[in-house]
Amino acid sequence: NQQSRRSVRLMPVAIQSLSELERARLQEVAFTRLHQDYDLGCQITMPKDGQKRKKSLRRKLDSLAKEKSKDKEFIPQAFSIPLSQVIANDRAHRQRQDSFRQDPPQREEHKDSSDLVSSILQFATKRPSNKELSSSNSSLSSTSETANESTSPNTPEAAPRARRRGGMSVDSITDLDDNQSRLLEALQLSLPAETPSKKEKHRDKRLSLNPIYRQVPRVVDSCCQHIEKYGLHTVGIFRVGSSKKRVRQLREEFDRGIDVQLDEEYSVHDVAALLKEFLRDLPDPLLTKELYTAFINTTLLDSYEQQSVAQLLIYLLPACNSDTLHRLLEFLSTVADHAHDQQDKDGQEITGNKMTALNLATIFGPNLLHKQKSTDKEFTVQSSARAEESTAVIAVLEKMIASYQALFMVPPDLQNEVLMSLLETDPDVVDYLLRRKASQSPSP
User: Fold this and answer.
1) Domains and CATH numbers, the chain
2) Using CA atoms, how far apart are residues 138 and 81, in angstroms rounded to an integer?
3) Measuring CA to CA, which residue among 259, 207, 273, 267 is closest to residue 93?
4) Are 120 and 92 in contact (CB under 8 A)?
5) What is the DSSP string of 130-194?
6) Which DSSP state fits 211?
7) What pLDDT digit, counting tens, does each position of 149-179 carry?
8) Are 95 and 110 within 8 A, CB to CB?
9) CA angle 93–96–99, rounded 5-degree value
10) DSSP string across 251-301
């Protein structure tokens, strides 16, 4: 063990490349460091990713059961629901698409599709505590029922069918390429059996030793891709008005789980309005209510500390919030790169879209970072303090857009803290993680 630990030179890595287990432990390490090394003048609370949402999901699922007899009613699949639920719905959508492509649909299989979604929602919101992890977790397995699970938005190629069945030990995972590792993760997170045994229930609660697939809502990724392809040179993108009727129609199509393909026929202004609407209507803002004051107070720190603390606060976010924020900031940075007039290779002037990082932060900041949707009465109280907070919100997001790539990297010292923390509870897991890091890092 000593030899294997000494031989691995840790390099900065993207947070998305860490395993689910490492990301969960990174939350704890970042939480401790924020308390020990920085004084933000406020209480820092870990964002809730399970208990609070579980209750609201249960209520929604109870109402789903009551409404099942009313065919006219439908439960929104994308808008005004918790982000973790949107991700679960998207996963169910991909699973149904894969099943449809591989096997002709049969009515009996699809008449209870709402039950499939409900089951996945209940399963996807279970978040284990570290106490439930044990060294036995070094063995990963999946049930044959999940063989049709899709890989991820980034890896449409299916792995060989022989790879999809039966159990796999950690050692054998090192032989898989990236696509197959993602497939294994998708298999692990897919729908559990209808009547799982106690042993299977315990196994479902484990955190994976592989990176989890990118948790970005389909509607967010589709909108970003559309504007990146068709709207980067559109003057006043996000400021110019849109067609409320067309935006409402698009919203309803995503909410009904329709496979919407945003092509050049759609107005970039309508798509931009849809993206803003999705973020605005999240029950909990993307940067979470719990971290509102902490993010605001980073503006009181010097520039270097601002970035370090913002990075630690991002580590506290649930994976779906972190991954979605990364995709959004990457997109906003690309839009800002086209803000000013430029010349093409032939010397022709290309008009800029005028949307600088500051302009984009002014539009998106209040949707990403707020305490709660307050009443009009509350807005009239302490208006000067609110104005200051609004300015701080914009400043926080503007800085994030400018430095988003660095924010989502995990430096070696923090990786080391994560591994040392895991070493106390799961030494065999650390050996596996180090072997994988060694195989991914360049040779000395």
Assistant:
1) 11-45+210-338+348-371+380-435 (1.10.555.10)
2) 34
3) 259
4) yes
5) GGG--GGGGEE---GGGGG---BTTB-SPPPGGGGSS-EEHHHHTTS-HHHHHHHHHHHHSPPPS
6) B
7) 333 344 334 333 333 333 333 433 334 444 5
8) no
9) 150
10) HHHHHTT------TTS-HHHHHHHHHHHHHT-SS-TT-STTHHHHHHGGGS
- Copy the structure tokens of residue 27: 């939350």
> Looking at residue 357, what is its pLDDT?
96
Q: Do the beta carbons of residue 225 and residue 216 sit within 8 Å?
A: no
pTM of the model: 0.72
**pLDDT value at position 386?**
74
Tens of pLDDT, residue by residue over 264-293, are: 999 999 999 999 999 999 999 999 999 999
Give the pLDDT score at 56.
Answer: 53
For 129-140, write each residue's pLDDT tens digit. 444 443 333 333
> Which of 327, 325, 341, 247 shows the shortest CA–CA distance to 288?
325
Q: CA–CA separation, 33 vs 421, rounded Å?
A: 13
Which whole-number Å values give the CA distances from 405 to 253, 328, 369, 372, in the listed order?
33, 12, 20, 28
Instruction: Write the pLDDT tens digit of every residue in 89-129.
Output: 999 988 888 887 776 555 444 444 455 545 444 544 444 44
Residue with tokens 């998207």: 90
- Does an H or E element contain 60, and which? helix 51-67
CA of 98: how far to CAs of 44, 91, 142, 185, 440, in Å? 42, 11, 18, 16, 31
DSSP-assigned beta bridge partners for residue 139: 169
pLDDT of residue 306: 93
Q: What is the 8-class DSSP label of residue 355? A: -
| DSSP state for residue 417 in the 8-state scheme | H
Amino acid at residue number 205: K
Cα separation of 216 and 36, whole Å?
Answer: 32
With residue 409 as reference, give the H or E element that holds it: strand 409-410
For 309, the token pair is 């603390």
CA angle in degrees (0–180, nearest 5) for 77-280-399: 125
Angle between the N-to-C axes of helices 113-124 and 83-102, in degrees from 0 to 180, rounded to the nearest 10 = 130
